[in-house]
Design a protein that fits this description.
Radius of gyration: 30 Å
Number of helices: 4
Order of helices and strands: HEHEEHEEEEEEEEH
Largest sheet: 11 strands, antiparallel
Strand content: 35-45%
Low-confidence stretches: 189-199
Helix content: 10-25%
Length: 233
């Protein structure tokens, strides 16, 4: 009886001390594409052309690649949710996020110096809905700004007087067909699980639990001896 009670107490204390298992990230890589719908004179000078008038040519192309934690995709009926892209072991900045525009080409990637917002991958009711990114860049001593809001993007020339002119605009292919060639990404050196190394508070609780168990067993043992002696009389 006493042995069974000790086992039950030890099992209960173990459940209290051991922290819950933390879900491991499930990284997925995918390609995406888009189109250029409007181009001004400045856009032409940057190597951009309208996709519908430049079908199949580099000037009208928009393409990119992204890696994200698939376990963070929100459920359906959750509206618009932005999930920040983060670095992780075994992945370069370009593999986490990059997008290319036109024939020069204009390239933007995770870890760029002049990012003002994002990059984040956006979902609408659990389905891919584009990206969130605001980034400044300089070409031929002119400062431009790329702004991606969901499935739409614009490029603007930022003038010295505080005004801006549209350079180009377009969209990213979204929905269930937006992310193509999806593959599981296995980092070269995956991080250890959060429960691989016990934290100091957990070790302290475990030590306290063991001390309590020893004291209880000792008292049960003394009680058993005393009861045996009483039965002998």
């Amino acid at each position: 009886m006493y042995k069974f009670l000790s086992v039950v107490m030890m099992f209960g204390l173990t459940l209290i001390v051991i922290p819950p298992v933390t879900a491991m990230p499930i990284y997925t890589t995918a390609d995406f594409s888009g189109s250029i719908s409007t181009v001004t004179g400045l856009g032409n000078s940057l190597g951009l052309q309208q996709t519908d008038t430049c079908s199949g040519c580099a000037g009208g192309s928009v393409s990119g690649h992204v890696s994200f934690d698939n376990s963070l995709i929100p459920a359906s009926a959750t509206g618009i949710v932005n999930v920040a892209l983060t670095s992780f072991a075994g992945a370069s900045d370009d593999s986490i996020f990059h997008i290319m525009f036109g024939s020069q080409p204009l390239g933007f990637a995770f870890g760029d110096l002049h990012v003002l917002g994002g990059p984040s991958i956006q979902f609408k009711n659990g389905v891919f809905n584009g990206f969130l990114l605001v980034e400044d860049f300089i070409v031929n001593d002119k400062t431009y700004e790329l702004s991606m809001q969901g499935g739409s993007w614009t490029m603007n020339w930022l003038k010295n007087n505080g005004s801006s002119d549209l350079v180009a605009s377009g969209y990213i292919t979204t929905g269930s067909q937006g992310l193509v060639i999806q593959e599981y990404f296995n980092p070269a050196q995956p991080p250890l699980p959060a429960t691989a190394i016990s934290e100091p508070p957990s070790l302290a609780l475990l030590g306290l639990a063991l001390c309590c168990l020893i004291i209880v067993r000792y008292r049960f043992h003394r009680f058993a001896i005393a009861r045996t002696r009483l039965q002998q009389f």
